Amino acid sequence: MDDPVSEYTARLLQQEKEIKLLSAEIERLKDPQSLDFSSTGLDELREENTRLKYRLNILKKSLQEERSSNSKSMTNINQRLQEIFGDAISVAYPDLEDPPLAVTPNQQAKFGDYQCNSAMAMAQMMKSKGQKVNPREIAEKIVQNIPDNELIEKTDIAGPGFINVHLKKTFVSKLLTNMLMNGVQPPTLDKKKRVIVDFSSPNIAKEMHVGHLRSTIIGDSMCRLFEFLGHDVLRLNHVGDWGTQFGMLIAHLQDKFPDYLSISPPISDLQAFYKESKKRFDDDEEFKKRAYQCVVRLQSKEPDFIKAWNLICDVSRKEFQRVYDCLGIQIIERGESYYQDRMTAVVKEFEEKGLVELDEGRKIVFTPGQSIPLTVVKSDGGYTYDTSDLAALRQRLFEEKADIIIYVTDSGQAMHFHVVFAAAQHIGWYDPKVTRVEHAGFGVVLGEDKKKFKTRSGDTVRLMDLLEEGLKRSMDKLKEKERDKVSTPPCRKGGGGGGNWAYRLIRFAHSLSLSLSLSLCLVCIMSIARLANIQEAALRKAAETCEIVLEHEKEWKLGKCILRFPEILQKILDDLLLHTLCDYLYELATTFTEFYDSCYCVEKDRQTGEVVKVNMWRMLLCEATAAVMAKGFDILGLKPVQRM
């Protein structure tokens, strides 16, 4: 007997090939210049076109059903509905180019589960072309052409042309069962991509402060999301390990520890060391001149100065690693120094293509459509952040062969990256239609003076102090809720403390109280089966044999909410806004609470407390909720509160 997997794969490939051939034939029939009207009548062509579209829809449906029945992945219901309505619109209005496609979850249950809002936008598009059509008529025509499918129970049209969609309960139940049996699996991946996420990026010779925490946490969570979806992810730490500030640090090192070449200097407080050197640099002109000379000798790579530079970098790395260990962060350091030798080649490439202009001794690059130039060489011949970021981007595109590159910094750097990306496109390094290069910005962290934190000022809040305070406050909240005797503080997977857990969800969900509530909710859900003495083996068997009944409105609401998880992940991939996941987890927790308050999962004798009845399909809904919440926590890099 043939291998069933190979046989299934061959059938899928054959069907996909037929779909492409039929689609090409339909497009050919749309072009009157390619047709011989003397031998083929218009009516015959229309009839052939209709037959082809019918066959195409049958093939698509067959392909989708085969994929669904053999896939362990979670189904993105919204995406599937978009495919269905996209087919319906293309059949109903074949001559309308790029018709708008809008499918969203319905906000009011009485109107159904999802809603297609394309009709109104299509009416506006047709009106601009001189065709006046009532949007309700458009909606009716779309509904008439919805192909047979596995998930829509019925549709109805409301108002000016809203198409309300009611899902089949059996379809939702089947998806929940599939998830329980196979776990929370990512949606099917069309192509594995090389993803680079540039995040954290503290400055050498300065301790990390609260301003770095957002980039570190958001960047790590983005990496976790792309990794969960099956992509090849490279986590890069673009540390500030090169520049003029190292001149003053080396000069101060030479004065304070003159034997640093033979005896490792005991720099225990890098913060104080930096502030001392900065004060001397600002107040002492002779020291400033010597600092500039040190920069030149460092850039010339004189061995003694390279050793001094390495000593300072190593002290910083140890401090950075303390933070990363606490947060459980895995990241590869590639600082500005890594790209120094590549900067000369980058400048030369821009010069050879005639893109460099001279401006008062500087070499600048203007990009079409951008009002601000990039300075690639300073008047003194040195390179800049612009040069460094261009060199880094080029290396990632051509050497790492990245498909997606994401920079996670505060939004104050948005304009800088916008111009860098524009210059890279202008010189032909990448096509944004093929390669995705984006800046994922977040709010600027302000100090008490309402000004942005600056690491070079030396007066910022130490990150380790903040993490320790986060741990203290999370314990205080547990005590306030009288859970300190039965729960341990929430902590980061692989990390040693709760500061990260507290800070992550404070940043995402805006409230420590809300953060702990989400974690405690997950713990409570996971304990329901244990308190009812239901073993894991019994739950696994129930998932295989028990149909998940969704008759009660709260069961139905919870089931749909659980299955929106792939939609949420897709939205984050589209806009890179991770707070959407926290909002969803909160919605899932509140939806579960409504369900648990209205639907008995376990019924006990009021006097003895013994379990008298277990509604197993509801227990399975509890398990499904816990599984999705746990995966959401995992993507955010969190481990929930633990029972003692």
Please explain how this structure is put together:
The chain is globular and about 85 Å long. The chain has helices at residues 4-30, 42-70, 77-92, 118-128, 135-144, 169-182, 210-228, 245-256, 270-283, 285-299, 303-327, 340-352, 385-398, 414-426, 463-480, 499-509, 512-531, 536-545, 553-562, 565-575, 579-598, 616-635; strands spanning 103-105, 114-116, 152-158, 162-167, 194-198, 232-237, 332-333, 356-359, 362-365, 374-377, 404-410, 436-442, 487-488, 491-492, 602-604, 611-614, 638-639, 642-643. The strands form 6 sheets. It has a 5-stranded parallel β-sheet with strand order 7-6-5-11-12, sandwiched between helices. Strands 1-2-4-3 form a 4-stranded antiparallel β-sheet. A hairpin with an 8-residue loop joins strand 9 and strand 10. It is of the alpha/beta class and 644 residues long. The chain starts with a helix and ends with a strand.
Strand content: 5-15%
Low-confidence stretches: 489-511
Strand arrangement, major sheet: 7-6-5-11-12
Oligomer: single chain
Shape: globular
Please give the alpha-carbon distance between the first and last residues.
53 Å
**Residue share in helices?**
40-55%
- How many helices? The count is 22
- The strand count comes to 18
The averaged pLDDT comes out at 85
Briefly note the structural class of the backbone.
Answer: alpha/beta
User: Main sheet?
Assistant: 5 strands, parallel
